[in-house]
């Protein structure tokens, strides 16, 4: 029995696909019309819907049009298995990247909210989760820290005695960051020179002494570049300083 043929616009509506996609598939020799008339018009048969559905299913699995075309030309189940196995590996890699991206976004959002809640509020006592870090380098030379890759985990330690150094937060680190109650100061600064940081650290300790707040350990400083505003053409930085409070 002769099949009824449909012009491309009609078939596109039946298949719930765009006319442009059908034309593109034809140009790729991926999905050809059942007949091309002398007038150049494309005609499709309902029996072709199965193959179009297969292409759509493989696309949903993440296969490229090139891979799908290769499989359709070979018509070999083993080739399909190899393609699907490769796609599974790519999917797992993509999921891992997305998990890392989600973790970074969650961490950035939490830090932004913390800095915003503290900035401009003066000296505050606040509970802090204990963390650990490793030493990166003494501040005896210039160093560049990329905020998006290192900044969330990188800070500056200004010890009571000794040389200031950069640190990186790591669970296996040998440097304890202050946990429990801390005296904090979050403000906007125009510069991050060592002299300026030492000056502000001294002021923080002077405030604690005047307020009868016993401090312990070193001062830790972190910056947030994403929240930094511009004023009169100058870029400001959001700086957070904290020192642990001796309890009991």
Describe the structure.
The protein has helices spanning 8-15, 19-27, 49-60, 65-74, 77-118, 194-210; strands at 5-7, 35-36, 42-45, 124-128, 131-138, 154-158, 165-169, 175-177, 180-189, 215-224, 230-231, 234-235, 237-245. With 248 residues, it is of the alpha+beta class. The protein is elongated and about 100 Å long. The protein starts with a strand and ends with a strand.
Helix-strand layout with pairing:
Layout: E1 5-7, H1 8-15, H2 19-27, E2 35-36, E3 42-45, H3 49-60, H4 65-74, H5 77-118, E4 124-128, E5 131-138, E6 154-158, E7 165-169, E8 175-177, E9 180-189, H6 194-210, E10 215-224, E11 230-231, E12 234-235, E13 237-245
Antiparallel strand pairs: 1-3, 2-3, 4-9, 5-7, 5-8, 6-7, 6-10, 9-13, 10-13, 11-12
Could you provide a short overview of the structure?
The protein has 248 residues and is an alpha+beta fold. The chain is built from six helices and 13 strands. It has helices at residues 8-15, 19-27, 49-60, 65-74, 77-118, 194-210; strands at 5-7, 35-36, 42-45, 124-128, 131-138, 154-158, 165-169, 175-177, 180-189, 215-224, 230-231, 234-235, 237-245.
End-to-end Cα distance, whole Å, is 94 Å
Total count of helical runs of at least 4 residues: 6
Task: Provide the succession of SSEs.
Answer: EHHEEHHHEEEEEEHEEEE
Low-confidence stretches: none
Estimate the mean pLDDT confidence: 86
Helix/strand-derived category reads: alpha+beta
Strand percent estimate:
25-35%
Main beta-sheet annotation: 8 strands, antiparallel
Q: What is the percent of helical residues?
A: 25-40%
Would you report the number of β strands?
13
């Amino acid at each position: 029995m002769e099949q009824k043929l449909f012009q491309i616009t009609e078939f596109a509506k039946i298949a719930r696909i765009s006319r442009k996609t059908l034309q593109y598939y034809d140009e790729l020799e991926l999905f050809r019309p059942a007949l091309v008339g002398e007038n150049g018009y494309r005609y499709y048969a309902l029996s072709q819907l199965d193959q179009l559905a297969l292409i759509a299913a493989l696309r949903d699995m993440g296969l490229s049009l090139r891979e799908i075309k290769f499989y359709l030309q070979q018509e070999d189940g083993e080739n399909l298995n190899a393609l699907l196995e490769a796609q599974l590996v790519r999917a797992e890699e993509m999921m891992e990247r997305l998990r890392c991206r989600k973790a970074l976004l969650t961490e950035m959002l939490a830090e932004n909210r913390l800095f915003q809640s503290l900035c401009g509020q003066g000296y505050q006592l606040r509970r802090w989760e204990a963390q650990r870090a490793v030493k990166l380098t003494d501040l005896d030379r210039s160093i560049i820290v990329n905020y998006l890759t290192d900044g969330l985990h990188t800070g500056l330690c200004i010890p009571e005695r000794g040389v200031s150094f950069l640190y990186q937060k790591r669970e296996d680190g040998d440097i304890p960051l202050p946990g429990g109650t801390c005296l904090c100061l979050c403000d906007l600064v125009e510069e991050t020179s060592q002299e300026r940081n030492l000056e502000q650290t001294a002021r923080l300790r002077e405030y604690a002494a005047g307020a009868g707040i016993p401090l312990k350990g070193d001062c830790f400083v972190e910056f947030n570049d994403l929240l930094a505003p511009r004023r009169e053409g100058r870029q400001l930085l959001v700086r957070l300083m904290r020192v642990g409070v001796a309890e009991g």
